[in-house]
Amino acid sequence: MHSPPAANLLIVSGLKREAILAGPACLSICGNAATLQAKLAELADLPLCLVVSWGICGGLDPVLRPGDLVVGTEVVSEAGSITVDKTIMQALQRHLATTSENVVIGRLVGVHAPVLTARAKADLNSATGALAVDMESQIAGRFARERGVPFAILRAVSDPAERDLPPLIANAVKPNGRTNMAAVMVGLIRSPGQLPDLIAAARDSHAALRALGRCRGFPGHFLGLGLPHF
Question: Which residues pair with 71 in a beta bridge?
Answer without folding.
Answer: 105, 154
